[in-house]
Amino acid sequence: MSKCRATKVKAQRPVSSERTIDQLLRTAIREKRLVAFVLDGCERIAEPHDYGIMNGATRLFFYQVGGASRSGRPIGWRWAELGRIAELRLLERHFAGPRPALSGRHVRWELLYASVSRPETGSDEG
Q1: DSSP secondary structure string, 21-72?
Q2: pTM for this entry
Q3: Which residues pair with 81 in a beta bridge?
Q4: Which residues neighbour 52 within 8 Å (Cβ) at sequence distance 6 or greater?
Q5: Does the 18-115 domain belong in CATH 1.10.10?
Q6: CB contact at 8 A, 22 and 113
Q7: 85-94 and 42-54 as β-strands: parallel, antiparallel, unpaired?
Q8: Which of 81, 51, 39, 45 is nearest to 63 (CA)?
Q9: CA 21 – CA 82 distance, rounded (Å)
Q10: What CA–CA distances, in Å, run from 20 to 24, 45, 73, 80, 101?
Q11: pLDDT of residue 18
């Protein structure tokens, strides 16, 4: 049994297809809007910062601001492979923009679709 609890989050619409997840992540990053989604059985509320391909997998780098976490710490930097994200919703609330990374270093992306701190470099196709 997961340590996560259900969290009520006001959302625009539920999402199921990978194509729609791609579109919503690009919109959320471009407009600096919070997202809510389920990852590893836990509902997360997050600021999506970078979205692209790293080490052959499509990933989201995000700062979790609410919801739950299996690690017990629901706030902080997290990674998620796109295939593990479920029930993604775009929220009305905005966030300020880039946050400093703890290490001060940025990772190398094979392809960066969208980023809060860098211009969009990926194709429009998901």
Answers
A1: HHHHHHHHHHHTEEEEEEETTEEEEEEEEEEEEETTEEEEEEEEEEE--TTS
A2: 0.79
A3: 59
A4: 58, 59, 109, 110, 111, 112, 113, 114, 115, 122
A5: no
A6: yes
A7: unpaired
A8: 45
A9: 8
A10: 6, 18, 29, 17, 28
A11: 65
Which pLDDT score is estimated for 55?
93
Instruction: Tell me if residue 18 falls in helix, strand or coil.
Output: helix
Burial 85-109 (b: 16+ CB within 10 A, else e): beebbbbeeebeeeeeeeeeeeeeb
- pLDDT tens for the chain, 126 residues long, are 346 654 444 444 444 566 789 999 999 999 999 999 999 889 999 999 999 999 999 999 999 999 988 777 778 999 999 999 999 999 999 999 998 766 655 678 999 999 998 765 554 444
> Can you give the residue ranges of every domain in the chain?
18-115
Pairing of strands 42-54, 57-67: antiparallel
How many CA atoms within 13 Å lie on the side-chain side of 44?
30
Report the distance separating Cα 36 and Cα 8, nearest Å: 10
Show the tokens assigned to 93: 């609330």
Predicted pLDDT of residue 71? 76
pLDDT at 102: 64
